[in-house]
Amino acid sequence: MSNQSSPKKHLMKGNEAIAEAAIRSGCKCFFGYPITPQTEISAYMAKRMPKVGGVYLQAESEIAAINMVYGCAGSGVRCMTSSSSPGIALKAEGISYIAGSDLPCVIINVQRGGPGLGGIQPSQSDYWFMTRALGHGDFHALVFAPASVQEMVDTVCDAFDLADKYRMPAVILADGLLGQMMEPVHFPEDYDFNKNTEKPWAANGHGNKRKHNIINSLFLQPDVLEDENFKRFKRYEIVKKNETKAEIDIEEDTELLVVAYGSVARIAKAAVDMARKNGIKAGLFRPITLWPYPEKELQKAAEKVKKVLVVEMSMGQMVEDVRISLKSRIPIEFHGRTGGIVPTPAEVFEKLKEMDGDDNA
Amino acid sequence: MIMPSYTIPKALCDVPTHYCPGCTHGIIHKLIAEVIDEMGIEGETIGICPVGCSVMAYDYFACDMMEAAHGRAPAVATGIKRGNPDKFVFTYQGDGDLAAIGTAETVHAATRGENITVIFVNNATYGMTGGQMAPTTLPGQITQTTPYGRNTDIEGFPVKICEILSQIDGVALAQRVTVIDPNTIKTAKAAIRKGFEYQKNKQGFSLIEVLSTCPTNWGLSPVESLNWVKEKMIPYYPLGVFKEGAIR
Amino acid sequence: MADEEKLLKRMNVNFDRCKGCGLCVTACPKKIIEIQNEKLNSKGYYTSRCIDDDKCISCARCAIMCPDCAITIKVIKK
């Protein structure tokens, strides 16, 4: 990001900011399929891509869209798709092939409520899906959880670079709230639409200069497939070591630590501020990467606290990673709303008061 | 004077294939490779393999290759082609892959007039999984999953892809050929060449359906299989051009 | 086989590549190809061979028909 004193600000919807950030990150092709609440990404791409020499294509299905991404990424071109929860479920097959073939791409999931057709209101109920089971087989994707329109821009830029660096898919896990909200943003000044790292492995025609490249995830010999998976997970270890990110807002005497991500983290922040004003020693831990999970950062932040409260727009999914990270050393409570209901700062504050009261009783 | 009059195309790797004896996949591979050689485009070509018997065709073609999920090859081809409009992209798909699980991808790549060439190998069965009913299995044909013969009251009717595609505006070429003797092989090669030429000139989607054999799962000898294509398949799937002409 | 003799062969069968399917036999207009039953190749197939080189016209129909690229053809002009 540019550190210039007065970068040009744009007032934009989260979904549109994602699209513009992708274009400025060198995303050359976008393959989409309409679904609420992410359709503005497609609409923006349809308008902008032809102007910058890129490709916007509306596929016949989410399945086709992700397979177009697979082909495009396999030919070495920066590309992206976006959808919302039920649509991402349809993409699971393609994502697994992308991961199994070690291809980089960016996938946007503007979450809505589920299961099934669910609803079209904000939700965080794809946490398990994104971090645990994005498709069949042994693999992971990078998962970023921005909490503001500006952070949507920043994480999209990072996502493209890290996806290329580690040759793996990267997911931006937003929700209907972030996708639809408008905030001022600024974009990287070093606009480089042609940004594309060297990809000697790509299947883009050998030009009679090298042996043919094969993009493939089929390994019928068990020892070869095991070796492929071992290699991939070795790379994941490096990712886990280097790429975790979190925002930590605690004080020396923080007793109650709230853990929340994405839009809920902003609600939690308001609740923490209310609590502090009322003498409750609360703090906030906000993971920015959900995979790799900032486990060490959380352990450090929770070192001196007495209790942890996890707030999510789900029935409790990330709370499992908090338990794994803290090894159940401290009491961990959960507050969640689901079905498209957004928790209010007041209800989180009530929960904090309750926990603080239990403690002092 | 000694002159080589028939050699192996350069666009094929010099390796044995895993195909059963007499399976005509090998002939079709060779025709594609010969066309690539003749057009001098091996360095600019990306091929896409399906899921099915030809799943490992990436080991046989010398150009860059990608393996697609079952039925998704036309979508994968679209992604490659849109990102690299000046490269040649072809898919190689069987009947289960193209005409069952991948029908939507096939039809929509065709409607978009995607500048790709699809080689569709129709042998009326799922070969790789051991000979189950395919969308193109003939009425009455016995397979592992139609042990009493395909009953059209229960399993419905075969899918005629060239006939379907002939109704689609984005199609530059829909042609059905076979490879059961040197003459039909010559016609098949000319059709594949035409498909690549349409692609070269950015004139739309081309699909060449090749009636092919599956001696192993049909329970026939390789030579009997050639006759089965002639006597059973061609009457149901007539050879010929179903649609031809540049769309742009 | 002596080199000289090999040079004179028009139809050359790659012994280990041939799967003995017999498609070449059907394609030969001179009916001079057979599947021999004397020697198995490394894959366990009896392979095809030309039984009368003098009659071979180097038309390459056998090679065109071969699914395994096991046959190459030479034209010999005396």
CATH superfamily of chain B: Thiamin diphosphate (ThDP)-binding fold, Pyr/PP domains
Task: Using the coordinates shown, work out and report the CATH topology of chain C.
Answer: Alpha-Beta Plaits
N→C terminal distance of chain C: 21 Å
Q: What is the beta-strand fraction of chain C?
A: 25-35%
Structural class of chain B: alpha/beta
Mean pLDDT over the residues of chain C:
90
H/E topology pattern of chain B: EHEEHEHHEEEHHEHEHHE
Going by CATH, the architecture of chain C would be 2-Layer Sandwich
The total count of strands of chain C amounts to 4
Q: How confident is the prediction overall: mean pLDDT of chain B?
A: 97
Fold-level CATH name of chain B: Rossmann fold
Shape of chain B: globular
Structural class based on helices, strands and sheet pairing of chain C: alpha+beta
CATH class of chain B: Alpha Beta
Number of strands of chain B: 10
Q: How many helices of chain C in DSSP terms?
A: 3
From the alpha-carbon coordinates, what is the Rg of chain C to the nearest angstrom? 12 Å
Which descriptor suits the 3D outline of chain C? globular
Question: What does this protein structure show overall?
Answer:
The complex is a heterotrimer of chains A (about 350), B (about 250) and C (about 80). By secondary structure, chain A is an alpha/beta fold. Chain A folds into two domains: about 10-240, Thiamin diphosphate (ThDP)-binding fold, Pyr/PP domains (Rossmann fold, 3-Layer(aba) Sandwich), CATH 3.40.50; about 245-360, Rossmann fold. Chain A contains twelve helices and 15 strands. Chain A has helices at about 15-25, 40-50, 60-75, 85-100, 125-130, 150-165, 175-180, 220-240, 260-275, 295-300, 320-325, 345-360, and strands at about 10-15, 30, 55-60, 80-85, 105-110, 140-145, 170-175, 180-185, 215, 245-250, 255-260, 280-285, 290, 305-310, 330-335. A seven-stranded mixed sheet of chain A has the order 3-2-4-5-7-6-13, sandwiched between helices. Chain A has a five-stranded mixed sheet with strand order 10-12-11-14-15, sandwiched between helices. The mean pLDDT of chain A is about 95. Chain B is α/β, with parallel strands linked by helices and about 250 residues long. Chain B has a single domain (about 25-245), classed as Rossmann fold (3-Layer(aba) Sandwich). In chain B, the strands form two sheets. In chain B, strands 3-2-4-5-9-8-10 form a seven-stranded mixed sheet, with helices on both faces. A two-stranded antiparallel sheet of chain B has the order 6-7. The longest helix of chain B is centred in the C-terminal third of the chain and has 19 residues, at about 180-200. Chain C is of the alpha+beta class. Chain C has helices spanning about 5-10, 25, 60-65, and strands at about 10-15, 35-40, 45-50, 70-75. The longest helix of chain C has 6 residues, at about 5-10. Chain C starts with a helix and ends with a strand.
